[in-house]
Amino acid sequence: MIELRAVSKRFPGAAGHAVDRLTLMVPSGKTCALIGPSGCGKTTTIRMVNRLIEPTSGQILVEGQDVMSVDPVQLRRRIGYVIQQVGLFPHMTVAENVATVPRLLRWPKKRIVQRVEEMLHLVGLEPAEFVHRYPRHLSGGQRQRVGVARALAADPPVMLMDEPFGAVDPVVRSRLQGEFVNIMRDLKKTVVFVTHDVDEAIRMGDLVAIMKDGRLLQCDPPDRLLAAPKDTFVADFVGTDRALKRLALVKVGEAAEPLQAPPDAPSLLSESSLRDALAVLLAHGAETAAVVDSAGARVGRLSLGTIREAAARPA
Ligand SMILES: Nc1ncnc2c1ncn2[C@@H]1O[C@H](COP(=O)(O)OP(=O)(O)OP(=O)(O)O)[C@@H](O)[C@H]1O
Ligand SMILES: [Mg+2]
Predict the structure, then answer these.
(1) Mean pLDDT lowest for which of 66-75, 92-101, 149-158, 261-270?
(2) How many CB atoms lie within 10 A of CB 192?
(3) 237 alpha carbon to ligand 1 midpoint, in Å?
(4) What is the 3-state secondary structure (H, E, C) of 58-124?
(5) Is residue 27 lining ligand 1, measured as CB closer than 6 Å?
(6) How far is the CA of 11 from the centre of ligand 2 (A)?
(7) Cα of 213 from ligand 1 centre, angstroms
(8) Which fold has domain 2-239?
């Protein structure tokens, strides 16, 4: 668990607070997306969690421990950190980069080698191909994967990630997002990640925290945020297509009725989203679609009416 209690930061000489009485709780194993306009205090917030920046006032607990009472070096070994702009060591190979913290912890050599291979597999990089390469010989997306592998290498329970997918193109980005969500869930990490991208926040966060001018405006699960934004800033920020974004969060299989669809109905995969379902129905000019599982068996039906109800349902 990560808990911030009325945390503020004022940089020396600055007119106002970079972070202003921020209170936020991320339960163990959950991912919180931190989002807001440039300069609103996101990076400052996560850097206070691992004490790269010290708060002016307030309290921060990581797994119940006040970060100010722990040795910062010890603290940082338990917290994986992926910085804005990746930050790999350019003069070190991929293997050496990933091994940074295990080496600091003086793990036996054999264990380090194993761990590096395991982590590269996890982020989808073939170890034999990548261990000896230098960061300059990697694509932006590959660098970002190495950054994530490095942060995960010592198996820290907590991960802080500052725009981890900032430098990659939209296609790779969307694949990395999906993989990243699965990795973090499987490993049960507690994660705070910063993003500029509302869709990314909604897709990846169990919680989405919106900041403005150093303050937290709203922190809620994505569906709740979209259904009930607290004020006009949040509503504008999450966008005018809120109803469509909510539909993207629900799988066809979750909303389908266990009934027969007409024989000529278009089919929908139960794994796809209601947003995709709407597009298919509109494209076919159909009221109802047949829902099929990954093996192609018909498992139910989905109608426009059901989609309409899902969009209107309170969170
Ligand atoms: N070391 C520093 N000294 C003085 N002011 C700082 C320092 N670091 C950050 N700030 C100021 O604090 C505010 C918050 O900065 P921060 O880096 O946390 O923003 P951010 O939300 O991460 O922005 P971005 O989305 O552009 O990365 C900004 O006004 C910034 O200029
Ligand atoms: Mg930042």
Answers:
(1) 149-158
(2) 26
(3) 20
(4) EEEEECCEEHHHCCHHHHHHCEEEEECCECCCCCCCHHHHHCHHHHHCCCCHHHHHHHHHHHHHHCC
(5) no
(6) 15
(7) 10
(8) Rossmann fold (3.40.50)
Which residues, in sequence order, are CB contacts of 134 under 8 Å at separation 6+?
90, 91, 92, 93, 94
- Which residue in this structure is represented by tokens 């930050």? 87
Q: d(Cα 131, Cα 146) in Å, to the nearest integer? A: 10
CA–CA separation, 254 and 259 (whole Å): 14
Q: State in Å: Cα 217 to ligand 2 middle.
A: 18
CA of 43 to the centre of ligand 1 (A): 7
- The CATH label, of 3.30.300.20, 3.30.470.20, 3.50.50.60, 3.90.1280.20, for the domain at 246-312 is 3.90.1280.20
pLDDT digits (tens, 9 = 90+) for 84-113: 666 789 999 999 999 998 998 889 999 999
Residue bearing the CA closest to ligand 1, atom 27: 38
Task: Please tell me whether residue 26 adopts helix, strand or coil conformation.
Answer: strand
Cβ–ligand 1 contact at 38 (below 6 Å): yes
* CA-194 nearest atom, ligand 1: 22
For CATH 3.40.50.300, the residue range(s) in the chain are: 2-239
- Provide the token pair at 2: 């990560």
Residue 179 has pLDDT above 80, yes or no: no
Pocket probe mutation, ligand 1, options 42, 84, 211, max atoms within 8 Å of Cβ: 42
Classify residue 297 as exposed, middle or buried by CB count within 10 Å of its CB (0-12, 13-18, 19+).
Answer: exposed
- What number of CA atoms fall less than 13 Å from residue 157's CA on the CB side? 10
